[in-house]
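Lecture 7 notes. Example A: sequence first, then its structure tokens.
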Amino acid sequence: MSTPSTPSTSVDDDPLARERAHLSSSRRALRAMREDVEALDISDVTANWVNARILERQMGERIKALADLSDTPLFFGRLDYLHAPGAERAEGAEGEQFYIGRRHVHDGDGDPMVVDWRAPVSQPFYRASKKDPMDVGLRRRFGYTGGDLTAYEDEHLSDPAETARTSKLLQREIERPRVGPMRDIVATIQPEQDEIVRSGLGGTVCVQGGPGTGKTAVGLHRVAYLLYAHRERLARTGTLVIGPNRSFLHYIEQVLPALGELAVRQGTVDDLVAHVEVRGTDDAAAAMVKGDARMAEVLRRALYSHVSMPGEPLVVVRGSRRWRLPAYEIEEMVRELLDRGIRYGAAREALPQRIAHAVLVQMERSGEAPDDRVQDAVARNSAVKAAVKEVWPAVEPAKLVLRLLTDADFLAEHAKGVLTEDEQKTILWALPGSGRRPARSVKAARWSAADAVLIDEATDLVERTHSLGHVVLDEAQDLSPMQYRAVGRRCTTGSATVLGDLAQGTTPWATRSWQEALGHLGKAEAVIEELTAGFRVPTDVITYASRLLPYIAPGLTPVASVRENPGFFDLRPVTGTAEVVAACEELLRNEGSTGLIAADARIPELAEALTASGIGFLAPGEETTAETRLTLVPASLAKGLEYDYVVLDEPRAVVDGEPDERTGLRRLYVALTRAVSGLIVTHAAALPPQLA
């Protein structure tokens, strides 16, 4: 690695000075690109105000995407090709040089100053090696302090005399202190990660990755890559990132904008299924049954039970003529629609047109010449509408679910052979001990989160859910089968990136296998990739946490930390909260963020102790500042978050705070693996025996 020593009088004699000069030129070029967009006059190119508004919005997004962030380097690497990419490799032909950065920057002549990291020509920056140099003579990495270029490091990939070595700049970037929201990893993407990032839009990828393997970053960067490679298509169909909670979404929300991508929606599963206001909760047993995929069949049966066969003929009066359709003919139409398996609502809309067509056939046989307007008029005839209402009535999804949960006979009829009697009793609201009283209306009902998912399923049975082009589902291991189905409905015609860790499943219904989960998602053909190289969690910390794996995820490959710095790790017996606060004060003397993670029930006591000591603290998801770098984190919200240093309070209490030991140990595994540089475990009670 080369670093500046003494100031140079000549840029030509100082490689670092030349690179700084290129950075300055690139920033000027980016500023010029932004000014060109800002100066555009669209008054003469828009036909109407609608087009004008659309173009204004697109220009606004383009201007935002061209923002030059002072503390975000425009480029982080350079590739010197032996030959010009794509050209014939003739002897003596000159190579070409490319600077790799977060976005494309060109000069006034249109020549590239910086190449987007997603471009094909950038791929060797991530994948080239001494064994396969990919026609790259030199790969240069740059080091920055803030926004200033302060160092560079070279690898001569095609030089057999130079031995492969670990990049110091790469290690430094991985271990750089975490302050503020999650940042992008474009400068540190590893070959196995890059392969997932650049996988095609047509296929679904499931990434199993332990703590610190970068699976969330890989998922977000895959979105950025797909938007680059398939921008027009995804602009039409849309993309969505689904996270476990608001704190997590707030933590990751700056990653895509930093890469110039501003049009990606973010939300939770609860946001997707927000058909009703959620004001109630389920116990674990009820939530387990409601989240079971068998509920989809119960809902289907209950919905289609409203369809009945006609008992008498239909008579349509038009003017002085009467047209009679026998009951058996209407029944044939109904059965044909049922056999086609189309949505309940679509079939209901099709039935009056089928009936009207049959009437038109009779009219034509009698010598009349009806047209489409006559058919539409017959379909709107009061007798036809009454017959359809009787045979195929409209059904409101929320009312259907409400009846299933409050009418024991109705539930028993449609759950027969699917749910046991005990399971039916578990989800009924009206039974003693259920904690729910029968609701008189949809608005009055105290719906739970699991109920909302059932309503979403019923809604899709009535009317097809809109499908997006690509969906990223993070922390997927915690979803129930019915939640997977809800997400799958949003990408039936698109693809998905599924991210998770089976060892971190902390719900009673947590995923048992990715094959099973992908089946519920409707993506059984998905490719399953496993990331086992740990870039975030220090060696000593991940080794200690991995003691829990045989108890929470037998057979799962432990994460192997690739960091040279083993990190700081200390098991510390304490007698009270004062010593926990002292541990926080100790870690806050280091640069970066600190998290105090504890069982949810312990949070009020710890908050009081921190306040009494004059230590300011934040809630999960709130951005750290220079003045406040401590976050107080309930163990239930720790998943997906990371801090430079962590104090983990009372592991035994974390385990005991869950309904069963396995879930508690998984919650503890999550809490143990949030640290980037150091971890102190404080405990007054004995540690769980699994950590012995």
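Example B, a different protein, same format:
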Amino acid sequence: MGKSRPATPTGDKQMTTTAGPDTAPDPGTAKKPAGVRVVLFALMIAMLLAMLDNMIVGTAMPTIVGELGGMDHLSWVVTAYTLATAASTPIWGKLGDMYGRKGVFLSSIVLFLIGSALSGMAQDMGQLIGFRAVQGLGAGGLMVGVMAIIGDLIPPRERGKYQGMMAGVMAVAMIGGPLVGGTITDHLGWRWSFYINLPLGAIALVMVTAVLHLPKKRAQTRIDYAGAALLTLGITSLVLITTWGGTEYAWLSGQIIGLGILGVVALALFVIVERKVSEPVLPLHIFRNGNFSLVTLIGFLVGFVMFGSMTFLPLFQQTVQGASATNSGLLLLPMLLAMMAVSLFAGRVTTRTGKYKIFVVVGGGLITAGLALLSLMDTGTTRFTSGVFMAVLGAGMGFLMQTTMLIAQNSVEMKDMGVGSSSATLFRTIGGSFGVAIFGAIFTHQVQSTMAERIGTAGEKMTSGGAQMDPKSLAQLPPMIKDAYAHAVASGTHHVFLWGAAISVIGFAAAWFLKEVPLRGGPVTNAGSEEGAADRVLVAEAV
């Protein structure tokens, strides 16, 4: 009795708990679900900021280029943001572990809002690119901050109750982003596509400051600057390869090969440095846990096939099925609603039973099946049929999106919650970058080949600068060319989804090797009464 638990990152003060019945919290009052929901609402606003931004800005880009010029630098508006986000994600996670989650998270929100305000005031394309990089640095801390704080506040066993909320935010961003972006650009001007972040961010700042109570830390060790620099260099090289490969430069060009060599060398040196420093920015020991390594691989593959595939669904809907840009977003509803419903179901069952492996296995199978079904689409596929296929894919995503993060967080110690969350987020992000690049290359090659087969070299030249045609320009072309392009896009998406299904089989196979490790925060047993009681105290005290 009297044995104290080490300081944890989830209370205002260092707390002590004992295994004795006199210190166990009352189950009816300790969890304070209303307080947890208030905290989660504030965190969801911050998550919405990060997810909405790219979708809103993407809709406004044609108008931005029309006013600022700099068409040749257009891709850098997106690339600068993506690079900064990916490179800063693991660093934000480590800073939260070292210095306390709340202060670091608030800093990331402030940095994101500063970048948003500056981007809205940009006077030329160079300024916009630089300010987007600032915005991306803040965005890197938003997602990992939300996930790590949730990992601190809510034991994995209880987290399933709130999965529907997180899935709902993702659906709102995917559907509402283009709609909001178009409305803002048309009625308020493109600068408000950045300024809209300011009131949302202010609400998040006030709410997080008021309702989230986490301890301040002061690490005694030095920050791993060498490791952070090498990791940033390695991630930057990988992202640039996926961004430039096949578009700006040929895949076998000196620039791409040079970036590949630079990335490999930087990451190899990073591993050497991380083995020697006392407080590594990305502790390699977390990968010794079999479940963590497997779920990181699965997360990478989910990002690969999900982001890669979803890039081409709207194009298929607009070009082949004749949907407008707005309707193509609404046509994704079957996938997003299925994802929300399944995520909520899986979360509830996980909370009640503590079982989660079955959901990863079933999710991997459904994603593979969904992609295989989508590969069957052609120019005669109806919207209803494609909607059913997308619902299957969405169900698989719903089983995996939050469950993989839950397993990753349950596989690391509380002191490594930040780097565990950031690692899972980072690998999913890099997987998405690779998926978009590789599927883009497959799609472009197939469209060019099909156009050449149908209308000869003229068709190949029409798509040599990029496989996508503007829908307005396409509508003015002769019926024969429009028909050829529709078949070319259908053929390209067929190959994308077919390759996606083949790659997703790897994730499905990996899911079978996961071990059903008990989730922290489950029912109190004689063997684990102290840890279970302490976890419930942490939830109560944090809110």
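Note on Example B: Residues 285-518 form a domain with the Growth Hormone; Chain: A; fold (CATH 1.20.1250.20). DSSP finds 21 helices and no strands in the chain.
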